[in-house]
C-alpha cells in the first residue's frame, strides 16, 4: 500500500455506509460504549481493582459478607460492592472474573471461526463427497444444543487429562469444548457463500490462468464471504459468554481459584436467600451488561451489512 492509498482508505471508511449506520443507531452506540468500558475495565483490572481477589494472603474471613458501600467492622477496608463469604471484594472479583470470561469467549469464538470458516471453504469449493461429509457432520451437531455438546466434550477432555493437570488446563479444555461446539454455524454460512462466489467470473478467470485453488480460496473468495462471518462471530461471542457462564455455574468451567462471572454467580446463589443479595446481583448485572452490549453490536452489524436494508 502506498502513502497515497492510506488516506484514501481512511477517507472511504469514515464516509462508508457502515459508519453512517453506526452513527444513526442509538442501540449500537450504547452497546459499543458499554462493551468498550467493560472490556477496558477487565483488561486494566490489575491496575484499577482495589484488591487482588485471587491472592489468598490478602483475604480476611472477618471481612466476609460486608454489605455494599460500607466498611468492614473488623478491618478498615471499604467495599464499594460489598464482599463475599471469603472476604473477597466483589468489585475486584468482577473485574478479574470478567478477564477470565472474556478470554475464554474470545479464544473459543476464534477457534470456532477458524474451524468453521476452513471447513466451509473446503466444503463449498471442493464439493462432492467432501461437501456431503462435512455438511452431514454439521447437521448432526446442530440437532443438539451447543451447551450439551460442550458438556460432553468437556467431560471427555477432562477424562483424558491427568488429575494432577486438570485444574491448570481447565481454561483450555473449556475453550476447546466451547469452540468445538459452535463451529457448524460458521461452516454452513461460509459454505453457502462460497457456492455463490465460485460460480462468478473472477473465480473462473483465476482458474483459467492456473492460480492454485488454495490461493483462490484465500485471496479471492474469502474476502467476499467475511461479511456474514463477522456478524456470526459478533453474535456468537455474546452466546459464548453466556455458555461459559452456564458451564461455570454448573461447576464444570474454570477452577474456583480463577473464577469467572459464572463461578461468582454460582457462589452468590448459595447466599441469595440468607440476605447477602449483592454476592449474586452484581456479577449477574455485569454478565447481562456484557452479553447484551455485544449482542446489540451484532444486531446492528447484521443490519448494516445487509444490502437489502440499505
From TrEMBL:
Transmembrane segments: 27-49, 100-122, 142-161, 170-190, 225-242, 277-301
Membrane topology reported for the UniProt record: Multi-pass membrane protein
Localization per record: Cell membrane
Keywords associated with the record: Cell membrane, Membrane, Transmembrane, Transmembrane helix, Transport
Residues in ABC transmembrane type-1 domain copies: 98-298
GO terms under biological process: transmembrane transport
PROSITE patterns: ABC_TM1
InterPro entries (UniProt xref): BP-dependent_transpt_permease (IPR050366), MetI-like (IPR000515), MetI-like_sf (IPR035906), OppC_N (IPR025966)
A family per Pfam: BPD_transp_1
Major localization class: membrane
PANTHER family according to UniProt: ABC TRANSPORTER PERMEASE PROTEIN, OLIGOPEPTIDE TRANSPORT SYSTEM PERMEASE PROTEIN APPC
Similarity-based family: Belongs to the binding-protein-dependent transport system permease family.
Protein name: ABC transporter permease
Amino acid at each position: 500500500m502506498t502513502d497515497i492509498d492510506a488516506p484514501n482508505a481512511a477517507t472511504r471508511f469514515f464516509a462508508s455506509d457502515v459508519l453512517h449506520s453506526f452513527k444513526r443507531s442509538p442501540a449500537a452506540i450504547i452497546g459499543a460504549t458499554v462493551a468498550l468500558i467493560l472490556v477496558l475495565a477487565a483488561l486494566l483490572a490489575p491496575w484499577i481493582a482495589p484488591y487482588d481477589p485471587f491472592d489468598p494472603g490478602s483475604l480476611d474471613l472477618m471481612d466476609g459478607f460486608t454489605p455494599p458501600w460500607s466498611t468492614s467492622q473488623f478491618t478498615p477496608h471499604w467495599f464499594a460492592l460489598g464482599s463475599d463469604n471469603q472476604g473477597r471484594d466483589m468489585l475486584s472479583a468482577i473485574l478479574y472474573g470478567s478477564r477470565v470470561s472474556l478470554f475464554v469467549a474470545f479464544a473459543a469464538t476464534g477457534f470456532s471461526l477458524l474451524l468453521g470458516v476452513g471447513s466451509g471453504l473446503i466444503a463449498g469449493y471442493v464439493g462432492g463427497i467432501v461437501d456431503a461429509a462435512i455438511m452431514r457432520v454439521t447437521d448432526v451437531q446442530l440437532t443438539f444444543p451447543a451447551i450439551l455438546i460442550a458438556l460432553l466434550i468437556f467431560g471427555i477432555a477432562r477424562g483424558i487429562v491427568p488429575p494432577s493437570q486438570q485444574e491448570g488446563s481447565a481454561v483450555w479444555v473449556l475453550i476447546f469444548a466451547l469452540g468445538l461446539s459452535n463451529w457448524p454455524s460458521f461452516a454452513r454460512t461460509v459454505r453457502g457463500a462460497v457456492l455463490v462466489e465460485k460460480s462468478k467470473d473472477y473465480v473462473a478467470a483465476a482458474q483459467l490462468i492456473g492460480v492454485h485453488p488454495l490461493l483462490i480460496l484465500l485471496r479471492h473468495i474469502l474476502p467476499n464471504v467475511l461479511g456474514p462471518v463477522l456478524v456470526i462471530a459478533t453474535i456468537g461471542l455474546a452466546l459464548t459468554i453466556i455458555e461459559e457462564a452456564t458451564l461455570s455455574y454448573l461447576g464444570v468451567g474454570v477452577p474456583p481459584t480463577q473464577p469467572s462471572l459464572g463461578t461468582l454467580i454460582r457462589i452468590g446463589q448459595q447466599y441469595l436467600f440468607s440476605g447477602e443479595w449483592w454476592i449474586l446481583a452484581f456479577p449477574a448485572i455485569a454478565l447481562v451488561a456484557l452479553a447484551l452490549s455485544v449482542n446489540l453490536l451484532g444486531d446492528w452489524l447484521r443490519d448494516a451489512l445487509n444490502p437489502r436494508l440499505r
